[in-house]
Amino acid sequence: MSKFKKKSEGGIPAISTASLPDIVFMLLFFFMVATVMRENSLKIQNALPVANQVEKLDKKNPVSYIYMGKPSSGYEKFGTEARVQLNDQFADLKEVGAFISSERAALREELIPFLTVALKVDKDANMGIVGDVKQELRKVNALKINYTTGVGDAMTNIK
Amino acid sequence: MAKRSAPEVNAGSMADIAFLLLIFFLVTTTIEKDSGINRKLPPMEEEDQPDVIIKQKNIFTVLLNGKDQLLVEDDLMEIKDLRVAAVEFLDNNGDKSCTYCQGPKDPTSSDNPDKAIISLKNERETSYAAYISVQNELVAAYNVLRNRRALQLGPQQGFREMNFVEMQQNYKDARFVGNKVKLKAVIDQIKLEFPQKLSEVQ
């Protein structure tokens, strides 16, 4: 009997998968923490442009979002021009003022002057609609705005 | 009583359950973008306001037309050159009252940073992407000057090697160790010395 007998016939031993759940849980927790559930489902295309001189949007103060862009596929009946979306539906320009009023009504009084309006505008939209919305915001005296952008080289916006 | 050991629970399917949850969160995740360019809109002007007279040389006109072409002071310009041109205009110091400017003191350009106004005009057909690029460059021009000033002022107040953008970040950062009151004073002073006077023509 030799002491150095070949161990077993099978070549590679099975890899232990006991730590697999741990790895998966780790990933799971990461995504659970990083997830922000979407408040609104978008009915428009909303690819944001990029800029590199950005400031972080202060989440301590209240933020209202106004979306603008072309209606996405499935909503072609609303036209091919850029539209405004407030909350969950397409809106008219005239409704912007009412939207801001309702957002303000939901806030505590001392926070109202700090309400920031974040404009999430598709990069293919043109300035006409953005200018109109800005004008509506001026009418209701909501002057703090933020052009939401991604972070990147601004030169890549223009092809 | 015979001691009965609890039967071991088979944990083999744990990975499957975790995967299921993981895939759910992977699919639903949208990492929200929460950064952008902050702007303040001008209030609605009242009817009976007298017109403010501003010297032509103190206005830096930037026009972005419907074909996304950039006209700066009536000359065609590439967006990549805008930052340098804006810095030169703001930093010019025509009346020599600004002690911290390094501009060429050209009497035909802006008097001092406090009087210098950048006027941005766009047309309805201008694309939003081009508009954001221009906004970005103009903000960058102010940041270039403010950063330069911060590096001059900071060391006197004990904030070494910190430019304006970092100062603002530190001021917002709860973990920042240092005198925040002092930091705020420096930030406010720089903002006063290089005020962001960006007017948008409707």
Could you describe the 3D structure shown?
The complex is a heterodimer of chains A (159) and B (202). Chain A is built from 3 helices and 8 strands; from the N terminus they run αβββββαβαββ. Chain A is an alpha/beta fold. Chain A has a 5-stranded mixed beta sheet with strand order 5-4-3-6-7, covered by helices on one side. A two-stranded parallel sheet of chain A has the order 1-8. The longest helix of chain A is centred in the N-terminal third of the chain and has 15 residues, at 20-34. Chain A starts with 19 loop residues before the first helix and ends in an 8-residue tail after the last strand. Helix content of chain B is 38%, strand content 14%. A 5-stranded mixed beta sheet of chain B has the order 4-3-2-5-6, with helices on one face. The mean pLDDT of chain B is 82. In chain B, helix 2 packs across helix 3, helix 3 crosses helix 5 and helix 4 packs across helix 5 (180-193). Chain B is elongated and about 100 Å long. Chain B has helices at residues 14-28, 82-90, 128-157, 164-172, 180-193; strands at residues 35-40, 59-64, 70-72, 75-77, 117-122, 198-201. Strand 2 of chain A pairs antiparallel with strand 1 (35-40) of chain B, so a sheet runs across the interface.
Task: List the main descriptive attributes of the protein structure presented here.
heterodimer, A: 159 residues, alpha/beta, five-stranded mixed sheet, two-stranded parallel sheet, 3 helices, 8 strands, elongated, B: 202 residues
